[in-house]
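Continuing the batch. This is chain 6 of the set; chains 1 through 5 are on the previous pages. Same settings as before, nothing changed between runs. Recording input and output for traceability.
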Amino acid sequence: MKSSLQNSRNTYNKSHRNYSIRPTSSLAEENQVRNFRMFSQTQGCSITTNQPQRIELPCFFNTPARFKNMNKNKIQLSEKQNDPKSLQTPELSIYLQSQRRLKDYEMLAFACKRAGKIKDEGRAYYSMGVLLDNMGKWSQAIQQYERFLKICIKIDDLHGCGLAYNCIGVDYQFMAETNPKFIEKAIEFHKKHEEVSDSNGKFLASINLGLCYDANSQLSMFYFQQALKHAINMSNKLGQTIAIANIGRIGQKGLYDNAEKMKLFIEKFLQLANEMKDTESIIKGHMKLGAVSAQMGSYNEGKNSFLKALEMVENDRYLYQEAKCGFAISNAEMNMDQYLKEQAQLLKQ
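Output for chain 6:
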């Protein structure tokens, strides 16, 4: 009886063993799947194409949430944090909440280190990095991610290494906005991320490298094209949209050189944006298509593209004025072209 009871307990333990900390796919893939689901469930949101792409841990890792717009307010927050009148602002609430939780994770990291729980210690360092990111303290966040990276290297966790490289690279990108010398460090860590990752991670790294090389259109285009290849191989529509949008943005600098190829990219972007039901991206796609068509001398086609954008714009005054201006210019150019043709015919007579 005892042996059968012991056997049943062993069977139960084996079947209910906790594998929750082991992702069945790469962290980068979890990030893309989660973003796609979140995007498809949210009406009226727009794809962020020209910002660094971060890996987000799945919910079951139980790490702090990341707030993406804190960097715009970090200086004001540091000045206002002791002003009770400002406590109602959402940004300040996030800042203060992150500040309080940071102390908890500092104690947790210390306790895990003493107890020899190396994985939990690493997770605490990563969590501290996220909280410092939420506070806009990029350099301090990097220090925590470097501690996390050392542990990942020690336990031979390639997924963790990729996550750390991504976090450090993105933070250096943000620091480079005020001090361009940090862009080289961002490139260094994104290349390391690319080296240790599968197709999903390589996609994210390629997008980030393309953004880092923004001043060098050839290198930037190379990495965005690499990102597009990875997204196509994964059948990832959101990834394809991000890559094509960036190819279009970079390609506009050499519009006269290869306008036909540029037009194909924009048409593909429009197709994907329609499938994603992203209204703002569809409007911007029509406007880019209108600009390219006008540059190619297809003024009627350009006018029609700007007209489609005008019909879809509702509350964004800037987009409305831009589309209206594009429509007016294309229409004027078309009329002028027709007038010149008529005058040329008269001269021949």
